[in-house]
Amino acid sequence: MMAVFKRMRCALVVALAIGVAPFAPAFAVQPDEVLEDPVLEERARDISEGLRCLVCQNESIDESDAALARDLRLLVRERLVEGDSDTEVVDYIVDRYGEFVLLRPTTGGWNWLLWASGPILFFAALGMGVLYIRGRASAPATTEAGLSEEERKRLEEILKG
User: Fold this and answer.
1) Residues contacting 63, CB < 8 A, separation 6+
2) pTM above 0.85, yes or no
């Protein structure tokens, strides 16, 4: 009977964790950060989803609980309240923290090389593989030469001896 209760409790904990997981990013933004104007708050959330937390590095500042992410969220909201457009806010933060702060880096400048390097290397490897296979297919088959009569006699002497 006790084992049944343990299983039920474990199942309840798992179900609760799965049920709350989609709402976890909403917990990162503190109530004191939320703007009174819902339109500005929506713009702030949209901008925050595209900015990387410099501490976590794989989360947006909207999802992160790090102190620096909070500072960036407040900075975004401050710039929006001052009347900046979305692109001006993002440009301001990129100027201040560098392009690494963007979760989706731009493809302009030298970044095009980073974006293109994957497909370029894939097609180069594919071409080299095709050339290798064609070369192997057209290569003459190697045949092993048998032992000469003199070598065969010598081998029989060694094996008998």
Assistant:
1) 24, 25, 28, 53
2) no
